[in-house]
Design a protein that fits this description.
Layout: E1 18-21, H1 28-35, E2 41-46, H2 51-56, H3 58-63, E3 66-71, H4 90-101, H5 110-113, H6 118-132, E4 133-138, E5 147-151, E6 157-160, E7 182-185, H7 188-202, E8 208-210, H8 212-223, H9 228-239, H10 241-246, H11 263-267, H12 270-286, E9 288-291, H13 299-312, E10 317-321, H14 326-330, E11 349-352, E12 362-363, E13 366-367, E14 378-382, H15 399-409, E15 415-419, H16 428-438, H17 444-447, H18 456-471, H19 480-486, H20 489-498, E16 499-500, H21 504-510, E17 521-522, E18 526-530, H22 541-550, H23 564-574, E19 576-578, E20 582-584, H24 586-607, H25 609-636, E21 641-643, H26 647-650, E22 673-675, H27 681-703, H28 711-725, E23 735-738, H29 742-760, E24 764-767, E25 774-775, H30 783-790, H31 797-800, E26 810-813, E27 828-831, H32 838-845, E28 857-865, H33 869-885, H34 904-916, H35 921-924, H36 936-949, E29 959-964, E30 974-981, E31 1001-1007, E32 1012-1014, H37 1019-1030, H38 1038-1047, H39 1055-1081, E33 1099-1108
Parallel strand pairs: 2-3, 3-4, 9-15, 9-16, 10-11, 10-14, 14-15, 17-28, 18-28, 23-26, 23-27, 24-26, 27-28, 29-33
Antiparallel strand pairs: 1-7, 2-5, 4-8, 5-6, 6-7, 12-13, 19-20, 21-22, 24-25, 30-31, 30-33, 31-32
Helix pairs in contact: 6-8, 9-37, 12-13, 12-36, 22-24, 24-25, 24-33, 25-27, 25-29, 28-29, 33-34
């Protein structure tokens, strides 16, 4: 075909008439409107078709006879890539997807889509397509020209070149092309050649495949009613599509290991399975994870499932736990009747935290001098907050350093799973030090895997600054929301990457717990204030404390009595250099031990007369023995020495309460030996004598208080019998009694057990962590068996001890059972003494306060000392201030004194609340609760959905679903918008602080009154709400859909929601400006003036949820 330009004659003998449409002053769409006469036929060969092109030409297209449309590249053909996870042939796959999605509006038709009328348009377009249109797609790999022809009874026209058939190509919307010129040819000879070319291709089945049915089906998906669940997953699919792209077989649990067939996996609840999958993903990606689910959510079983997964991959696993919890872990890796998972053949090793300090001896049969510490692929650290401190000590390796150097850095690459209900106390360094175990102390290992603009060190420094400012706020402003607002994007990104922490509120609100059962209702706690005794001349609690505070306990401080002339010798021998804190003097260590023992005496007095009496007896014996030694030395002379006992501090677990073994005579063979000839013996002898007087006096007073005169014991007896006579749940006579001390447990058992058997024929058991458990069943049982007999349903007695007929109804225990045990058959917990750390009270109650409890309600009972709360707190302050004076880093290791730096007002509030209610662990801490900040649950939701249903990449944008309003859940009438930002103006560059964790995706929840309910920075809250109203709703809610369609004229009148969308986007601009201004006045880089949002067109609507009142 020869064309002549500028009016030169063609071979046809006359000029060719060709016009240029510039799509600026003259639009292709307007020209088509004039050309499309009634009865005309439209033929188009283009890369894509948009229903907004139909909308623009609707009147004219309604009059034509037919549309024949060829997709010039393969479009809407059967999927060639079947693997859901691996994206092969992406170069072909993505453009094809873009062409297909243009059907619902191309990327430049955002303005039209944001009017939200696409549903009405889609319905009309689909109805027209079925009547008048046929679509075929190029099935070959050969390129094809793009053009359009109109056949209109002699007035034919051809248009070329075309890109697509969209509102942009018609000239009605602006695209990004430099120019959009189209040539119009209406010379009959030429137009007929175009029509012939089109006809040849159209009728060639080798080149084209009919895709009309697919087009109609796809377009129908825009106007059909959607289930809330499908919109929820569409939101997640868009927001977390990078996560789906990043995951591979390497970082997901490998199904081929058979882990899903194990007993432990099938014992997990749905939320535990999500946690276990998330943990494996995080361990594989970042080498570490902290599981900080709240008390009572079953962290032990979740961790066991993770351990089993790695064992099935032939990995070597070590569990490091506090000594008191060792029995719990040992129960599952041994071939025991009480092991529910014996068939799973667990074979991990169990060692105690304190074993890291030891170099000889055995631990559960393992010789410590021969352990191959560097050969563990996975280390599970139970109560990982005991590794909060990383202070170096020159002369020896601390527990933390040994763990880091010998277990994690040496030998094979080690992954670290940490379990803790309280990973953050009030320093973010607590969390950083625990995380450092995962990245081997080199934060660069983690930095390169995170999407943060700052290093891990900077993130924690900034978080600590924010926390320090927050902690100075007045109590009414010191809210969880205030601290969350002060922390930046990077902190949440870091937490989300390496922690899983859900509260029970979260599980109740966002998981289907019908199969598990609810949490039991917590009754208001009962508080009793019992005096020591009813005897007339017995001293009061306060009087005894006064005497205790006068005790110097100089028997434990021989270093303080060394003569000045001899002191240098001992300082050189025994003082230790501590990393950042200068020198740790032996005298300071002794002060710490004295303070610890004073506190211990007070706690034991608070616990029971018997425990206090035994401690006084021990002290008396130690004093008499030391005084004898001094008298003997003065008479005979010679080389006699005494030892100090500070070494015992090193073997202590953090928060260890039972210090009685300390008070045995251990001065022989202690590391620190002091020659009596170097001591100021008269002064020491005098102080020892003074102490002995006070001890004798107190001891004789306590001796008079027999069990019959022990008011608290007698009250407990009567109260337990009352509970048994009037159970709070039908026929449930079980009672769990906690005490901090084994001596108190023994005392209660001796006095309660005979009476309960004689009066009620009920059996009593006792577990203290040390020594053999006891019961009145007349036969010896070990720790796990006794607990199984106490809680037969939760411990599955029918499986593990089918032939045991006895049952225990009253169990007396120490804190060896306050963690990691499920004793929910019981509905009544009595704290015979109040633990000084309120977290322990919650953990004790967590044994029965568990999801799936058979009891409808549960009761907590607390015995307080017979003084007012203010007096009690003042007393604690005085003791603790003594502890603070004695340097709390006495061991250069974790703070065994656990003297928390909480402010007094807060502690008072905690204890006052404990009298009124059972508080949540996350409500209790002064610091930040990290629960419920992570987005792991949503990723797991999406992953499980995609595994079953395949990917959602073909779903059109702009879909919606209707959900009912529910004020108690926080669902008020309005709309949730999920948007994608199309320029970078909203979120700052990665080098600056970020405001939105989901960028480029944005969620906004705006009320029907135009007020923002939750802005785009509240990502977790928004996703939680979406999940709570959508998940499980797999069908459209018909009544609500009908109501919505009436209000919006079947989607044609969407002005109200379009206005809300505009307001939602403007609200994001306002929040950005506010944050920018904040950043101007805070230190560091600013995000102000970095680029701004130009408005609505910067955002593309992905999906929305309409929250509507039910009429």
């Amino acid at each position: 075909m020869i064309c002549v330009v500028s009016g030169v004659a063609s071979d046809l003998g006359r000029p060719i008439l060709m016009e240029i449409i510039d799509n600026v002053s003259r639009l292709f769409g307007d020209d088509l409107k004039n050309t499309l006469k009634p009865g005309a036929k439209l033929r188009v060969a283009a890369s894509c078709f948009s229903m907004y092109a139909y909308e623009a030409l609707k009147t004219e297209l309604e009059q034509i006879e037919e549309l024949e449309f060829i997709f010039t590249s393969p479009t809407f053909l059967a999927e060639e890539v079947t693997d859901k996870i691996r994206k092969e042939r992406r170069e072909f796959h993505i453009p094809k997807l873009e062409r297909e999605r243009s059907l619902y509006g191309s990327e430049f038709e955002i303005q039209l889509r944001n009017k939200l009328t696409q549903r009405a348009i889609a319905r009309e377009c689909a109805e027209w397509l079925r009547r008048k249109a046929t679509f075929k797609s190029n099935r070959s790999k050969s390129p094809m020209q793009q053009f359009a022809c109109v056949q209109a009874g002699g007035a034919d026209a051809a248009y070329m070149p075309l890109h697509g058939f969209t509102a942009v190509d018609l000239g009605y919307q602006q695209g990004n092309a430099v120019s959009n010129f189209i040539n119009k040819i209406d010379e009959p000879v030429l137009t007929s050649q175009y029509l012939n070319l089109f006809g040849q291709i159209w009728n060639d089945p080798d080149k084209l495949e009919d895709v009309t049915a697919q087009i109609c089906e796809h377009i129908a998906s825009v106007y059909q009613e959607n289930s809330p669940e499908s919109i929820y997953f569409l939101m997640l699919y868009n927001i977390f599509n990078e996560f789906l792209d990043d995951i591979s077989e390497d970082v997901l649990p490998n199904d081929r290991t058979g882990y899903q067939d194990t007993l432990i996996w099938n014992k997990l609840f749905n939320y535990q399975k999500d946690a276990a999958t998330g943990i494996i993903n995080k361990l594989e990606t970042y080498s570490g994870c902290i599981l900080a689910d709240s008390v009572g959510l079953g962290k032990t079983f979740t961790a066991l499932a993770v351990v089993k997964y790695y064992e099935l991959r032939n990995k070597s696993v070590l569990v490091l736990c506090p000594k008191k919890l060792a029995d719990n872990w040992l129960n599952y890796n041994r071939n025991l009747k009480t092991n529910l998972f014996a068939k799973d053949r667990f074979n991990y090793d169990v060692l105690c935290h304190t074993d890291l300090n030891r170099t000889s001896g055995e631990s559960f049969g393992t010789p410590l001098n021969r352990i191959n510490w560097g050969n563990y692929d996975l280390v599970v650290i139970d109560e990982s907050h005991n590794f909060r401190n990383n202070d170096a000590v020159k002369e020896r390796e601390t527990r933390y350093q040994k763990l880091m150097n010998k277990v994690i850095r040496e030998g094979v690459k080690t992954k670290v799973l940490m379990l803790s209900a309280t990973p953050v106390n009030n320093r973010f360094n607590d969390l950083r030090n625990q995380l450092a175990l995962a990245y081997e102390g080199d934060s660069e290992n983690l930095n390169k895997k995170l999407r943060t603009s700052k290093t891990v060190e900077e993130v924690f420094r900034n978080a600590q600054k924010a926390f320090n400012v927050w902690s100075q706020l007045p109590p009414e402003k010191r809210t969880p929301r205030a601290i969350l607002d002060a922390l930046d994007f990077d902190f949440f990104e870091l937490l989300d990457s390496v922690t899983i922490a859900r509260s029970r509120k979260h599980i109740q609100a966002f998981y289907d717990t019908k199969d598990i059962g609810p949490f039991p209702e917590r009754r208001k706690p009962i508080s009793f204030h019992s005096p020591l005794t009813g005897l007339d001349d017995a001293p009061s609690f306060n009087a005894i404390f006064e005497k205790l505070s006068r005790l110097k306990l100089s028997v434990y401080a021989p270093v303080s009595y060394i003569l000045p002339s001899c002191l240098k010798k001992y300082e050189d021998m025994y003082d230790t250099k501590v990393g950042s804190k200068g020198t740790l003097r032996q005298a300071d260590r002794e002060k710490s031990l004295q303070a610890l023992l004073t506190v211990n005496l007070l706690k034991r007095l608070e616990s029971s007369v018997a425990a206090f009496r035994l401690t006084l007896q021990m002290l008396r014996k130690n004093h008499l023995r030391t005084l004898d030694k001094i008298v003997n030395f003065r008479q005979v002379g010679g080389r006699l020495s005494v030892g100090d006992m500070t070494d015992a501090l090193e073997g202590l677990e953090a928060e260890d309460d039972d210090l009685l073994e300390l008070e045995e005579d251990t001065d022989i063979g202690g590391k620190v030996q002091i020659n009596l000839a170097d001591m100021d013996l008269p002064r020491w002898q005098f102080d020892l004598g003074q102490d002995l007087e006070h001890i004798e006096e107190l001891f004789h007073a306590m001796e008079r208080i027999t069990p019959a005169h022990d008011s608290k014991l007698q009250h407990l007896k009567a109260h337990v019998l009352d509970k048994i006579a009037s159970p709070i749940n039908p026929a449930n006579r079980k009672v769990l009694i906690f005490t901090a001390f084994a001596d108190t447990a023994n005392y209660l058992y001796e006095n309660l057990a005979p009476e309960l058997w004689a009066r009620e024929q009920l059996h009593t058991g006792k577990v203290t962590g040390g020594g053999q458990p006891k019961s009145t069943l007349g036969k010896g049982y070990d720790f796990q068996e006794l607990l199984t007999l106490f809680s037969p349903r939760s411990k599955e007695k029918a499986i593990v001890l089918p032939h045991e007929l006895g049952e225990i109804d009253v169990l007396i225990g120490t804190d060896c059972i306050s963690e990691g045990q499920n004793l929910q058959d019981c509905d009544y917990v009595i704290n015979y003494d109040i633990h000084w750390n309120p977290v322990r009270i919650i953990q004790r109650f967590g044994r029965v306060d568990r999801i799936g409890s058979p009891n409808s309600s549960i009761q907590l009972v607390n015995y307080w000392p017979d003084i007012s709360l203010d007096e009690y707190i003042r007393l604690k302050e005085r003791v603790e201030s003594r502890m603070m004076i004695a340097d709390v880093t006495a061991t250069g290791d974790d703070n065994v004194l656990s003297a928390q730096a909480n402010d007094v007002a807060y502690r008072k509030e905690q204890l006052r609340r404990l009298q009124e209610e059972v508080i949540e662990l996350e409500d209790l801490k002064t610091g930040v609760s990290i629960t419920d900040l992570g987005l792991n649950d949503f990723r797991m939701d999406l992953l499980n959905y995609v595994k079953v249903h395949g990917e959602l990449k073909h779903a059109p944008n702009g879909l919606h679903a209707i959900v009912p309003a529910n004020a108690p859940l926080g669902l008020l009438p309005g709309a949730f918008f999920t948007l994608r930002n199309r320029n970078d103006g909203v979120n700052p560059p990665t080098s600056l602080p970020q405001h939105n964790r989901l960028h480029p995706y944005y969620l906004v929840y705006i009320g029907s009154d135009g007020q923002v309910i939750h802005d785009h920075t509240e990502v977790k809250r928004l996703l939680d709400l979406a999940r709570s109203c959508c998940k499980g709703q797999d069908q459209p809610i018909v009544e609500l859909c009908q109501q919505f369609n009436r209000q919006t004229a079947d989607g044609r009148n969407m002005q109200a929601y379009s206005d809300l969308l505009g307001k939602a986007i403007r609200s994001m601009i306002e929040v950005k400006e506010e944050k920018d201004i904040d950043s101007l006045f805070s230190g560091g880089k600013t995000t102000a003036l970095t680029r701004t949002i130009s408005g609505l067109d910067d955002f593309e609507l992905i999906a929305f949820l309409v929250v509507q009142d039910v009429a």
